[in-house]
């Protein structure tokens, strides 16, 4: 193979690798939106989103994304806007700040936790980490469905 053919082959390989790297995630793998911390506002309360460990987001079936400064605000927003049909709920792991799906996360809900909006909700990828915090604040580890029900009851009691 002469040098010009090698250069063409190397260029084609580089282009293929670049295209593969830029390709979106495979279908079915929904991704959370990027949040510019300290710059973007919560879609529920209008406050600045500046604490990643409490931030949350949703992706709706029509492709819209919503961003929140607190998990409780995410739940409250969608309770008030049922027409925004959620395809994926995203939360950050309290310890690592890694995104995870709320549907599979473990939650600790306690007024002892100082979180935006005062609802004291932290999410975890690992149940053991959630149990450790729950033991510290005297709470239980709950699922996303139970959390949504607890927040709905709390909202109803305040109104």
Question: How would you describe what is shown here?
Answer:
Helices cover 35% and strands 18% of the residues. It has helices at residues 3-22, 71-80, 127-137, 144-158, and strands at 56-60, 65-68, 86-92, 99-101, 106-109, 121-124, 141-142. The protein has one domain.
Topology summary:
Elements: H1 3-22, E1 56-60, E2 65-68, H2 71-80, E3 86-92, E4 99-101, E5 106-109, E6 121-124, H3 127-137, E7 141-142, H4 144-158
Antiparallel strand pairs: 1-2, 1-3, 3-4, 5-6, 5-7
Could you give the order of the helices and strands? HEEHEEEEHEH
Give me the Rg, rounded.
20 Å
Strand content: 15-25%
Q: How many separate helices?
A: 4
Overall geometry comes to: globular
**Proportion of helical residues:** 25-40%
* Main structural class: alpha+beta
Count of distinct strands: 7
Number of domains: 1
In a few lines, what is going on in this structure?
The termini are far apart.
Q: What characteristics describe this protein?
A:
7 strands, disordered N terminus, four-stranded antiparallel sheet, 4 helices, three-stranded antiparallel sheet, 18% strand, alpha+beta, 159 residues
